[in-house]
Amino acid sequence: MPVVTFDYEDFISLLGKKLSKEKVLEKIPMIGADIDRVEKNELSIEFFPDRPDLASVEGIARASRAFFGFEMGLKKYDVKKSDIELVVEPSVKKVRPYVVTALVKNVTMTDELIKSLMDLQEKLHMGLGRNRKKIAIGVHNFEPVESPFVYKGVDPNSVQFVPLNKIESMTMTDILKNHEKGVDYAHILEGFDKHPIIFDKNNNVLSYPPIINGSLTEVTPFSTELFIDVTGTDRNAVNYALNIVVSALAERGGEIYSTTVKDADETYITPDLKPKEMSVSIDYANKILGTNLNSKEIDKYLAKMGYNTKNHSEKVVTVMIPAYRADILHEIDIIEDIAKGYGYENFESDFPTSLTFGKTLKEHNLHEALRTIMIGLGFNEVTTFTISNEADEYKKIGLSEKKHAEIENPIGEDFSCLRTGLIPSLLKILNENRHHPLPQQIFELGIVVDDQFKNKYNLAFAKIDAKANFTECKSYAESIIRDIGQDFKIKDCTHPGFIEGRCATIVKDNKEIGLFGELHPKTIANFELEYPIIAF
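The structure assignment produced for this chain is given below.
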């Protein structure tokens, strides 16, 4: 979870009220946090990752003012108009389609603000931005550049500029290969022939998102006007990130100015700090919380959590949600905040009204017995992903595709279906461990999805060793069958993934329920392995 470290005196300055350090440490956890560390005046607070608006001392101070009763209700920020424009060209749509911008004036770049802004940017990149894949934030000194700006896709070999923390001009391709940030984040742009870039009116480079800013707009201790851009693949996420950053700067006296983004036939003004509305059922809230709160009491507790309410009735409260609260997705999220405003310490504890006795599931004992057997045979247990792909499940082991569960909108070609067997998963683990010494022997008791789209538990093992052979595999199979006390038969069979004559099936009640043997060299090569493998 994100840990926010800040100076107590800086926090009190932002809070605007005198409060002892002991009282701060006592009250802040009730908002939804844990005290991580306290060293003299340096406080480290661990907040739950669903609250990116609390990833800075400015956001914590804002929430604390409401929760402590100093300034309850929705915090409103003035947004002034500017003539700044940014034009989005179609060339960037396939790689990183969304962008929002803002200008913040009257900024005083204190040491505390610089540290807080850098920390906030990185925490938003990691959490809300999924390590910059979903969103990336650029903060620029506005003075050297001019509007209108252009956001477009370009050939990475066609543009060069001096990136942040460098003194020489580099092409975008060079940055990906040789700049520290380029090496770290090049994978995000892999496979795209056009890369996103932001130019100003005079073709100066502001940003190469999500990689690096240009050195021209580097923020210094003397910067007073900050231009912020947020680009990404999720429209809601880029808007929330911009709102969180500009509202944090406004907490330190910054003045927010709107900008105009022209995107094909659509024109929109950002940042949009208007609150959203959501209706909450009073009966539902009381049912969930086990309380008997009326609308006025709910208003009070929501005000402690930074909300306003309107359109009261005996049944429903309409809640005004701050534009920086990215975590409010459902009515239940607001009910959670009612509970925090009410105070968890005020909920009465009680004993369960009925007693029940649990017992293990029928198959649990069999699963545990199988695990014990496999460990006794010298195998290490692994757990692998249920999501796989057709190449691994069928092509690499020589099978024709059969009916299987496909993923409708896969994130990539490696995650396109649910697995139908465990052996490909084990072979991928062996592939990842090629640099470790042999022998390696692993097993998994995991879920596969059959052709009726039902989850089933399967047992599989694989062993890679220069001396692995069918006889050894057969002895393992017979040991497993014997130790679970079942009556099975073993019969010869052929399977394209195994060497002919060194493969057998396990039969129970005239039904084939498993197979084992030596893998075919072609199967071994398909998984980029080099030594004999036995599998079951």
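Interim note for the steering committee: The chain has a mean pLDDT of 93. The first strand starts at residue 3 and ends at 7.
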